[in-house]
Amino acid sequence: MVYSHRRQKATDLLAKLELDALVFCQPENIRYLCGFTGSDAALIVFSDQLVFLTDSRYTTQSNAEVTADQICEYKLKIEGIASQLTSHDVSRVGFESTLPFGFAKELQDQGNADCKWMHLKDELQSLRLHKTSDEIEFLASAADLNAAAFAEVIHMIRPGTKESEVALALEFALRRLGAEEKAFDVIVASGARGAMPHGVASDKLIGTSELVTIDFGCRLSGYHSDETVTLAMGDVSGELQSIFDTVLEAHDLALAEVAPGIALTELDRIAREHIKSSGFGDYFGHGLGHGVGLAVHEAPTVSPRSTMNAEAGMVFTIEPGIYVPGVGGVRIEDTVLVTDDGCRILTKIPKTFSNILLN
Predict the structure, then answer these.
(1) In terms of DSSP bridges, do strands 328-331 and 321-324 run parallel, antiparallel, or are they unpaired?
(2) What is the CATH number of the domain that holds 259?
């Protein structure tokens, strides 16, 4: 039933774009549309048929998992896709923007010379943009794993511990609790390294009177969690306290406004203007958030360049940050679901200021 609904969304999109076929190679889209959990395959959506293609490594798996009209095995991926398109005599084909240029060019060269190819990006966002109740349950369960894993390792986040040790302990706890995989390389950035938004854990020792930013997540049933906390190692300077307070206020102000109808650019503006008015405008360079689902970064984007309004069923992060070179940084992140009358915070770890140094 679930795949029937998703298939209908794809065929509706096919009709809307006046295409004869849609070619999917991105694993998340393939999993969404037919249930395949492997790492290499293709899926072609025709108006009356769904054709799944993979190689011999995944034949048994696909027969067990995939919901499609045909399951075909290829020796060469490009030839397999081209053969299907030729046999269906298509004249207009859409493909994902993530498809490598060389692959797309070779695919076009092997297909019908008169066929027109449409590069799709924003047009495909509608497929996975609104989460259903089962997807929300998976996302909430992944967020619960975050909280449980963090509770297991918080005792070791102390001065003298390597950042990399914290990251490894978090990853191990997530896997032991049932996660399929970490969502991305765990970020643990302490002291001056906190000014690095993507400061993947290093061998640096966490120091006293430092802030430590920890950004982590996991994958569960294909769906991801994403959450960032910043902790204080004992008393910190007034400047670091001010940075933390400003980020938390920006986070809370934006979060309070999440509801159907608000422009995503407005959410970004609310947080960004607060940071700017507090004197840190030059130190918040990234967007306020991003969608979370089968991919840890997906539509919608919450930034000054967003073009959408919030709609019920969207899931995205709110993650303002301030990063001052040579001083440190703070990011505070929650993942939220837009509901009919506001929002539901899926992530569970408290974000208020925490001094966890034991005396």
Answers:
(1) antiparallel
(2) 3.90.230.10
Same domain, 123 and 138: no
- DSSP structure class, residue 156: G
- Alpha helix positions (H), the chain: 2-16, 27-34, 59-65, 77-87, 101-110, 125-128, 133-153, 163-176, 238-256, 264-277
Q: Is residue 127 a contact partner of residue 5, using CB atoms and an 8 Å limit?
A: no
244: in domain: yes
Q: What percent of the chain has pLDDT over 70?
A: 99
Question: CB neighbours of 168 closer than 8 A, spacing ≥ 6?
Answer: 201
Average pLDDT over residues 125-143: 96
Do 204 and 59 share a domain, yes or no?
no
For residue 359, pLDDT beyond 50: no
Domain that holds residue 245: 133-345
Closest to 214 measured CA to CA, from 198, 234, 225:
198
Q: Do residues 291 and 298 lie in contact, with contact meaning Cβ atoms separated by under 8 Å?
A: yes
Q: What is the pLDDT of residues 201-251, one digit of tens each?
A: 999 999 999 999 999 999 999 999 999 999 999 999 999 999 999 999 999
User: What DSSP line would sit under 49-89, residue for residue?
Assistant: -EEEEE-GGGHHHHHHH--SSEEEE-SSHHHHHHHHHHHTT
pTM over 0.85: yes
Report residue 80's pLDDT band, with 50, 70 and 90 as the boundaries: very high
Q: Which of 127, 158, 177 is the last residue of a domain?
A: 127
Q: Are 336 and 317 in contact (CB under 8 A)?
A: yes
User: Which residues sit opposite 96 in a β-bridge?
Assistant: 120
Q: Give the C-alpha separation, 301 to 198, whole Å.
A: 18
Residues 19 and 150 in one domain: no
